[in-house]
Design a protein that fits this description.
One of its GO terms (biological process) is fatty acid biosynthetic process. It is built from 11 helices and 8 strands. With 334 residues, it is an alpha/beta fold. The chain has 3 domains: 46 residues; 213 residues, 3-Layer(aba) Sandwich (Peroxisomal Thiolase, Chain A, domain 1); 57 residues, no CATH class. It has a 6-stranded mixed sheet with strand order 3-2-4-5-1-6, with helices on both faces. A two-stranded antiparallel sheet has the order 7-8. Helix 3 crosses helix 8. The chain starts with a helix and ends with a helix.
Length: 334
């Protein structure tokens, strides 16, 4: 009988130890699952969804065939054959098509209208009905927009573009607005980056981002080649985006923003002066594109790829790149 009790006691001890061990495993497993759920929830909260977007579609009368543009250039430069030939060559090599558009002021002869009225006319022609169409297509009420970011590099009117959108769309009085200017071709991405940063600290936001450029009032009518380039390369256009970090857009959005990197080369004098809005010797104002622009753009692209590659490339490709880089350095050293 005593032996039987000892055996029973031993069995109970092992059983309790087993139960205690199982409970520990369950607690550890539950803790891990809770941490994973919190981590996933935190990642979901930081995600920015591109709900939808719209691009400006100019009216047929705004179309500027290349021959028409060259003819307008002839009038602007008073028949200077060298300037006209330069514009024609740049147009042929630029890839600009026959269906690009310019605002109504540029269609006028000889030099068009560069007044504030013409600028506002171009701005409203680009923004409306592009923005109302975007909201209507997605069933979004203007009152539900929490954040507006607009950017227009060369034109910075008062009231701002964001204020114009608030007024015309009837947005809420507590809507947060930003208007960016003077930031060139990267302004659209910078606007998205600003929205992303704001969405990391505020939940359940719906943002409207509008990007455009008023080209009509900033056209160059002189004969300096570095300043005539902008006339050939830039056209009328704009885009509107709806961005949100609301979970209900997870399945309905077109894209999800995973990574965005920025490189600012303003500390380099060559980069700082590669694109300048300035007058020429005769007082004609335009945008000057220096010869260093391609090298500066290449440096910025290289820096961006270096920052972006570790975020998107698989480890095998990163290892291949590291080995290739080390091999090249060894060969140079040898």
């Amino acid at each position: 009988m005593e032996g039987y009790l000892q055996l029973t006691e031993a069995v109970l001890t092992r059983t309790m130890a087993s139960v205690s061990l199982t409970c520990r495993h369950v607690l550890v497993l539950l803790t891990v699952l809770i941490l994973l759920a919190l981590l996933r929830s935190a990642r979901e909260a930081r995600r920015v969804y591109l709900v939808d977007y719209r691009c400006h579609r100019p009216k047929a009368s705004s179309r500027v065939p290349l021959a028409t543009f060259v003819e307008h250039t002839w009038f602007c430069v008073n028949g200077d054959e060298e300037a006209v030939d330069f514009n024609a060559k740049v147009l042929q090599r630029s890839g600009i098509g026959e269906d690009t558009a310019m605002p109504d002021s540029v269609h006028e002869l000889p030099a068009g209208d560069a007044s504030l009225g013409a600028m506002w006319g171009e701005i409203e022609a680009v923004l409306f009905p592009m923005v109302p169409d975007l909201l209507a297509a997605n069933g979004v009420s203007p009152k539900s927009i929490d954040l507006v970011v607009s950017n227009c590099s060369l034109s910075c009117p008062t009231p701002s573009l964001s204020a114009l959108l608030v007024n015309r769309l009837g947005l809420r009085s507590n809507v947060v607005t930003y208007s960016l200017s003077g930031m060139g071709c990267s302004a659209g991405l910078l606007a998205v980056d600003l929205v992303r940063d704001l969405m990391t600290v505020r939940k359940d936001l719906l943002a409207l981002v509008v990007s455009m450029e008023a080209v009509g009032v900033n056209g160059y009518v002189g004969k300096v080649k570095s300043m005539m380039l902008a006339n050939c390369l830039f056209r009328m256009g704009g885009a509107a985006l709806l961005l949100s970090n609301r979970k209900r857009y997870r399945g309905a959005s077109k894209y999800v923003l995973h990574h965005l990197v920025r490189t600012h080369l303003g500390h380099d004098d060559r980069a700082y002066g590669s694109v300048c809005h300035e007058p020429d010797e005769e007082g004609n104002v335009g945008v000057s594109l220096s010869r260093a622009l391609l090298h500066v753009a290449g440096d910025a692209l290289r820096a961006n790829i270096t920052s972006l590659a570790p975020l998107v490339l698989p480890y095998t490709e990163q290892a291949k790149y590291a080995w290739s880089l080390a091999w090249r350095r060894l060969r140079r050293g040898g």
